[in-house]
Amino acid sequence: MEQQLAGEVEMLRYARQLKLLGEEGQQALKEATVMVAGIGGLGGTAALYLAAAGVGKLILAHEGIIVPPDLNRQILMDHDHLGMERMSTAVAQLKRLNPHVEIEGYNSRIELEAARPWVEQADIVIDARYDFPERYALNRLCVQTGTPMVEAAMYGFEISLTTMIPGETACLECLYPDIQQDWEPLGFPVLGATSGIAGCLAALETVKWITRVGAAYAGVMHRFNTLDFACYSVHVTRNPDCACCNQGR
């Protein structure tokens, strides 16, 4: 069932972006469901700007409680909620920002069977998880369900971004066929502003995909170093031997 823009209230809220997206684009956002896997510095920023933009439904997944090292970058969290569940705090913050957005929040890691119904509901997924096992699980679910995935990551001062379209572009396992054993998920260096830029780029890519305003960054990996603003893009192709997206072909 289509959700219609709620008259003057929402038209005023989105007045400035309507100049860019048009009413048709804004309506497409209203009708869209986006899953954001991870609501830390990157995913939390993406969720914030998607809620602000008027996405109709957000499905969020991230486990755990708020701890002091979160607070340099996780803008949906705050000092007064230290020790409390991360997800409930994030959902409350987003609802305060935009009560028109429907939000499902799950205090959970990404696991194949648990996350399947969330991915199945989504029109597009943002991968903002901090470890490779969860990223691989999410990638496999997106391939199985045919759901586009914005793959966004950062480490130190560097940001990586691409959009993966099952059956058309490389999937995550095409690019990284082996689990990254040297990844340090609980202690990698991060500056809040860098993860925030990555989250904004992921949100922008998602809005572009939903509204068809501009071209999605599909089949291309963009790298951006926030320390010196150096950037480059490389074309990425499917691996014919990929154990995920080419299995059984």
TrEMBL record:
CDD domains: ThiF_MoeB_HesA_family. SUPFAM superfamilies: Activating enzymes of the ubiquitin-like proteins. Residues 14-243 form the THIF-type NAD/FAD binding fold domain. It holds the Pfam family ThiF. GO terms for molecular function: nucleotidyltransferase activity; thiosulfate-cyanide sulfurtransferase activity; ubiquitin-like modifier activating enzyme activity. PANTHER family: ADENYLYLTRANSFERASE AND SULFURTRANSFERASE MOCS3, UBIQUITIN-ACTIVATING ENZYME E1. It comes from the Bacteria. This is Protein hesA. Signal peptide: none annotated. Gene3D superfamilies: NAD(P)-binding Rossmann-like Domain. It comes from Paenibacillus donghaensis. One of its GO terms (cellular component) is cytoplasm.
